[in-house]
Amino acid sequence: MDDFIIKAENIKKVFKVAGEDFYAVKGINIDVPKSSLTILKGRSGSGKTTLLNILGCLDKQTEGSLYVNGENVTKYDMNKLEKIRRNQLGFIFQSVALIPVMNAYQNIEFSLRISDYKGDYAERVNECLEMVNLSKRATHMPEELSGGEQQRVAIARALAHKPTVIFADEPTGELDSYTSLKVITLFKEIIRKEGITIVMTTHDPKMMEYGDYVYEILDGQIISFTDNKKEVAP
To answer: Which three-class secondary structure state does DSSP give residue 38?
Structure first.
């Protein structure tokens, strides 16, 4: 357990559809090692986003056990899960979801204000802006930033309060290939510098080689697992 930041055992998620049970996730087991980039690969409707939401404590599984930072959160109610999300986890969404009336600096600072961050706000915000190479755009509003710049602000916001895990749902889905590669390269650099674990979903096959670990999901089940770290080991 100590080697894994997230551990899921026999996770199932059932929705009612036209009065019938629909299994969006069907008995998934997954281990997410610390300080890694783990990719959940699958086409739309495969169940990958449902699984990501469960791993990130945004939703609760119907069956199965979930451990976050070694803590069994399986039976926690949504209030307890919210506290874990605010203080231990970070999120990046495909839609970016920046607050439109706040500039880049303020969007990042906001994540510190809603978490239990104890450090110097200005110092951490400027550190994060520098990390994503946007120090000169700190006072720009979201509408004044390109799509790639907005995504980098979202990344800085997600890592500002120093979470142990960042969850990213299709973070490159709205970006061109060049900008997507820059985002993934930034993820790898953040993992190296900050020791953060990143779990992301994607349907883009070009992203697969950049993940340390890749789970392919189809119809709510894992159909393949690739350990890219083992493949490149001497």
So the answer is: strand
pLDDT tens readout for residues 79-134: 999 999 999 999 998 777 899 999 999 999 999 999 988 999 999 999 999 999 99
How much is the pTM? 0.92
Determine the Cα–Cα distance for residues 204 and 57; give it in Å rounded to an integer: 25
Pairing assessment for the beta strands 37-41 and 4-17 based on DSSP bridges: unpaired
Sequence-separated contacts (24+) of 68-76 with Cβ below 8 Å = 68/5, 68/6, 68/165, 69/5, 69/164, 70/1, 70/2
**Contact criterion met (CB below 8 Å) for 199 and 167:** yes
Which tokens go with 75? 């039976």
Q: How far apart are CA 133 and CA 127, in angstroms?
A: 10
Name the DSSP letter for residue 118.
-
Q: Which two tokens stand for residue 93?
A: 């969404």
Helix axes 121-131, 177-194, angle to 10 degrees: 130
The Cα-based distances of 179 to 24, 107, 166, 173 in angstroms read 31, 21, 19, 11
